[in-house]
Amino acid sequence: MGVPPGPRLDQVRVGQQLPLFEHTPTKVQLVMYAGAQDDYMPVHFDHQYAVEAGQPGVINHGWLTYAILLQAVTNWAPPQVADVVAASCRYVRPTFPGEAIVCSATVVAKHSEERTVDLELSATNPAGLETTKAKVTVHFS
Amino acid sequence: MSALTEYADLLRQNIGRCGKPLTTEVDKSAVRKFARAIGETNPLYFDPDYAVTTRFGAIIAPPTFVAALMSMDLPPLPDPPVTFTVTLHTDDVMEQFAPIQVGDVITSVPKLADAFVKTGRNGEMLFTTFANELSNSDDALVATVAWTKVQRP
Known about the structure:
The complex is a heterodimer of chains A (141) and B (153). Chain A is of the alpha+beta class.
């Protein structure tokens, strides 16, 4: 576990695209996440239940998808250099284990005096459809 | 005025009504399990010897750890006039005022924040927003999380 370096605020520019972050959750990860968050909704582990609820199979937890999106930001500016002070996430489509979640993030505003940077994030599934949108504000320490 | 719109009006009279609080002592193993589960590797979430050398001075939790601290014991609300067949969780909005660290004792209280009806392609939908306030043992607000569910008859 190396300590990730991070950018300095003066290196951040509006319009900048962060490196794409991609992660494919597994069913095991969903079980780990259910335990870690204490969320045992059956749609996240019970295939039959998920199918009866109208899904093709178990779906990822919304908050897990959110956590994966945020890593597009925190892998670039980890807590060692910046804190996530505000974030919002909108679930447009469900995401599924075994399918890559590809997250893009763009710097949309920079407030030098407050030392904050606003970013907009979007995640797509293997079909190229947007599944999740987020807005994140980080404060550089 | 439809039955669902009347129900949303009735719900709005209950804005601010609280559910049951949940108090959690944040410990190292809970943070480690959560960080592993989301695929994190930053030593700030795992290594106390490293964390003590940083500005935090102790292991901190990843931003979305607030999800593990939220009380889901929602306020009692009037019964709906219809049976909902579809319920979706649409969004989560968080603000964090201080890092959440190992050793913190966090109390979360859920409140009804809003209720309204929108008409879409599939007819009327009820949106209900709850806000969870997370405070530490000094009664300082460390985070808020607002989330919305959508229900359709």
